[in-house]
Amino acid sequence: MATEGAQCETCRPHVAEPACNGDHTGKDIPFYRITVGGLECFEEAIGLVIRAGAHNGGNPRVFAVHLPICESQEKALEALKTFDHGSDGGSIKVELVPEGAEAVVDPGLPEPDLSGLGDIHDWWCTHGAGRR
User: Fold this and answer.
1) Strand, helix or coil at 69?
2) What phi and psi, each to the nearest 5 degrees, are found at residue 29?
3) Were both Cys, which of 23, 44, 57, 123 would link to 116 (CB 3.0–4.6 Å)?
């Protein structure tokens, strides 16, 4: 029995695990893992990461995009796969996890939230870029 003002186990807020963790290793839900290496062109790269509807799970350079994806996300992911500014420009690795999973595109899915595109610098800093 809870005393007045105290919260019982049912009402007490619980810390939830992040739904989309960039370091996610579960085998049940296929996802794209995007690993951003050192890049000269952060703004362009992170703009594509946001357009892909990516989520960061704590690692400032690793993001996840869970399937299915919509057509605009597919285009952003394809652009990330071919992102190339030469060997001095850095790297981006896009992997479909688990290995052998099939990418599923659903034209009925809503577009991802692009609100982060308003100020990419602040978005990047908020997602841990300062912690290298």
Assistant:
1) strand
2) -115, 110
3) 123
Q: Which two tokens stand for residue 71?
A: 């057509």
- Residue 91 CB contacts under 8 Å (≥ 6 apart), including other chains: 36, 37, 38, 39
Q: Rounded to an integer, what distance in angstroms lies between the CA atom of residue 132 and that of residue 127?
A: 12
Name the pTM for this structure: 0.69
Identify the three-state secondary structure at position 121.
Answer: helix
Residue-wise pLDDT tens digits, 76-104 = 999 999 887 665 667 889 999 998 899 99
Only one residue has tokens 């896009």, namely 94
C-alpha 24/C-alpha 120 separation (Å) is: 24
Rounded to 5°, the CA angle 65-69-70 comes to: 135
SS (H, E, C) 106-120: CCCCCCCCCHHHHHH
Residues in contact with 79: Cβ distance below 8 Å, sequence separation at least 6, in sequence order: 48
Give the C-alpha separation, 45 to 48, whole Å: 5
**CB proximity list for 12: less than 8 A, separation 6 or greater:** none
